[in-house]
Every structure is written in structure tokens, then in C-alpha cells.
């Protein structure tokens, strides 16, 4: 197993860094630069690595923030029957085609919105 060496990141008190996380040369930038240094990858790949690590470690919090920011749809939201029927009639879909559509949506999102 090969260990990757990276410069350490010194973390100040949380209250001191929370407001500065989005500024230039912030703690986030230090994490990204540390990943770039240790893996010899690009900035986009390093950011993806950090985001995936945060998601794997704090999945519930990550999903909550993503829903609050509008990046991820609210999985608990379900349309009522009347709205679904109106949507399908407006699109001109019959029963067979609407079932096929719902099957594809369920496979893509892994759950039903209806």
C-alpha cells in the first residue's frame, strides 16, 4: 500500500472559519490544494473527491443541505392524484403510455413522486 503525503491543514476555531469558508484561500481551498498535491489531479477532480467524501461520511446532512439549496428534489414530496391526472391529460398520454412513463421515472429516481 502506498501512502500519499500531503501538507497538513491547521484548523482554527470553528467560529473563526465558518464565515470565511467561501473566501479566497479559505480552509476549503486548503483541502482542495492538499488533495491536488497528494494525488496529482486537477482541481475539479479534487473538489469531486472532497464532495464524495463528505457525502459518504455525512449522508443525511449532505442530503438535507442539498434539498434546502434546491440542488436535489425533496424525496418526501408526492403529487396528489388530481395533479397527476391533469398533467397526463395535458400531455395527451393514455393509460398504457403513462404507466411506461412512471416505470422509467421510478427506475431513474429509484422512488415514486406520485
Portion in strands: under 5%
**Biggest β-sheet strands, sense, barrel:** none
Q: Total helix count? A: 6
Low-confidence regions: none
Instruction: Using the alpha-carbon principal axes, give the shape.
Output: elongated
Number of domains: 2
Task: Indicate the mean pLDDT.
Answer: 76
Helix content: 55-70%
* Structural classification: mainly alpha
Q: Please tell me how large the radius of gyration is.
A: 22 Å
Task: Report on this structure.
- The chain has 114 residues and is mostly helical.
- It folds into 2 domains: 14-68, no CATH class; 73-114, no CATH class.
- It has 6 helices and no strands.
- Helix 2 crosses helix 3 (43-57).
- 1% of the residues are buried.
Task: Give a quick rundown of the structure.
This protein has 114 residues and is an all-alpha fold. The chain folds into two domains: 14-68, no CATH class; 73-114, no CATH class.
Primary descriptors:
114 residues, mainly alpha, 2 domains, 6 helices, elongated
Question: How are the elements arranged and paired?
Answer:
Layout: H1 14-18, H2 27-39, H3 43-57, H4 59-68, H5 81-91, H6 95-109
Helix pairs in contact: 2-3, 3-4
